[in-house]
């Protein structure tokens, strides 16, 4: 059971400008994601687990499955996916339900449920700390946990958050303060094969051209995230 | 004909594909065509504002009640708009009575996001006395018949009902510090933008159809809802997972959303114009 803390910045520092979470500093257009790190297989009970850190935002994900499913919830020809998102404090509310639906539908689009009919795959996400870009971090943690559990998937997915401020400047991976001051915050989930848009949820007002700009920037940034996934997994499996 | 209805039950996807190949749908619509939309406002006398929207068979009724409340401590000059979408067993076999299920909660959150993002009303307009008294608008959206595309119907019903809301004038009596409501003097809300939702269903990862019925939603591999205001700004791009879309496909959706906005705006203007002499 080797748990490896994978410092994303070490491998890809030359490509991603490392930013400490608290002090955003000047961010240029294009890719400027925060420093991220991932650790897999850190919990003993779930079939797969992963912890994903983006700057100061941290989410822990655990995956159980394919496992037994309740007869009321079973689907005859594919696996039933369930996502539980627990906030850091308080009871889960309507906003969590909405996010759970987003994450679940994103996972359903990539997980090959047809290989495990009448089973259930449960993804449990616990927010450890929230310093902006929470939904994107949840998506990344869920993806890494699904990989760790060995759930067959047709592609990997990653979450990217874009913020647009009042003069239209694009910021990727905003901190909590930047999100609050932004005019619009857009979160996308992109798949690894063709960088297609799997999921999107937005807050605030923006124009059509700005949407296309954000989408293009998110697609470029996702290349870095996928490269990080690949290196993280390579390091883990090369040692064992 | 007997075999067609049998195929529809046993192999619904194949049945559907045969129609999609001809660029149409079983109910005779084209891929980019909306169902007949009708709207009726002010039908609930006991509510401060109400509307009934029918999108084909999907029926949503919205009732708005205005009550007094204390403004939030972190925003003392703002009121509240509290939406709630109720999907009861009346509208579809899928829902059970009891606490709101997932679909109702997601729809409620979606409507709350649309209100927040589009700035349909300025929350400051709802404040009566800063820090002490403000209006709270409880918007109840009840689905009477669920035949798909609930989000579009709810957004439209909410918009029409908000335009119908009349709030009485409230003055704070200096001596007694109590609120005095003048029911004879009512005014409409200041609706700043008109967000209109357009929903699409993705079939077989490539084909986009507008305004899916419940059957189509069930067979679809993904859904997308675009909420646009009259200036072409997007308030919400809600794509909860499902098959991937390219930027170009999104662009097509945007243009369809723009035309839909014009259709809805025209319908609303007609309805409100016919109501004016009161």
Automatic annotation (TrEMBL), chain A:
GO annotation, biological process: defense response to virus; DNA deamination; nuclear mRNA surveillance; poly(A)-dependent snoRNA 3'-end processing; rRNA catabolic process; rRNA processing; U4 snRNA 3'-end processing
Compartment(s): Cytoplasm; Nucleus, Nucleolus
Occurrences of domain Exoribonuclease phosphorolytic (ranges): 33-152, 156-220
UniProt keyword terms in alphabetical order: Cytoplasm, DNA-binding, Exosome, Nucleus, Phosphoprotein, rRNA processing
SUPFAM superfamilies: Ribonuclease PH domain 2-like, Ribosomal protein S5 domain 2-like
Entry keyword Nucleus: yes
Stretches the record annotates as Disordered: 1-30
One GO term describing the cellular component: nucleolus
GO molecular function: DNA binding; RNA binding
Quaternary structure, from the entry: Homodimer. Component of the RNA exosome core complex (Exo-9), composed of EXOSC1, EXOSC2, EXOSC3, EXOSC4, EXOSC5, EXOSC6, EXOSC7, EXOSC8 and EXOSC9; within the complex interacts with EXOSC3, EXOSC8, and EXOSC9. The catalytically inactive RNA exosome core complex (Exo-9) associates with the catalytic subunit EXOSC10/RRP6. Exo-9 may associate with DIS3 to form the nucleolar exosome complex, or DIS3L to form the cytoplasmic exosome complex.
Similarity annotation: Belongs to the RNase PH family.
Name of this chain's protein: Exosome complex component RRP46
Organism: Moschus moschiferus
Lineage: Eukaryota, Metazoa, Chordata, Craniata, Vertebrata
Automatic annotation (TrEMBL), chain B:
Occurrences of domain Exoribonuclease phosphorolytic (ranges): 33-168, 195-258
Pfam entry (one): RNase_PH_C
Species whose genome carries this gene: Moschus moschiferus
Biological process according to GO: exonucleolytic trimming to generate mature 3'-end of 5.8S rRNA from tricistronic rRNA transcript (SSU-rRNA, 5.8S rRNA, LSU-rRNA); nuclear mRNA surveillance; nuclear polyadenylation-dependent rRNA catabolic process; rRNA catabolic process; TRAMP-dependent tRNA surveillance pathway; U1 snRNA 3'-end processing; U4 snRNA 3'-end processing; U5 snRNA 3'-end processing
SUPFAM superfamilies xrefs: Ribonuclease PH domain 2-like (SSF55666), Ribosomal protein S5 domain 2-like (SSF54211)
One CC-aspect GO term: fibrillar center
InterPro entries: ExoRNase_PH_dom1, ExoRNase_PH_dom2, ExoRNase_PH_dom2_sf, Exosome_comp_Rrp42_subfam, PNPase/RNase_PH_dom_sf, Ribosomal_Su5_D2-typ_SF, Rrp43
Family recorded in the similarity comment: Belongs to the RNase PH family.
Family annotation (Gene3D superfamilies): GHMP Kinase, N-terminal domain (3.30.230.70)
Localization of this protein: Cytoplasm; Nucleus, Nucleolus
Protein name per Swiss-Prot or TrEMBL: Exosome complex component RRP43
Keywords of the record: Acetylation, Cytoplasm, Exosome, Nucleus, RNA-binding, rRNA processing
Main localization category: cytoplasm
A single MF term (Gene Ontology): identical protein binding
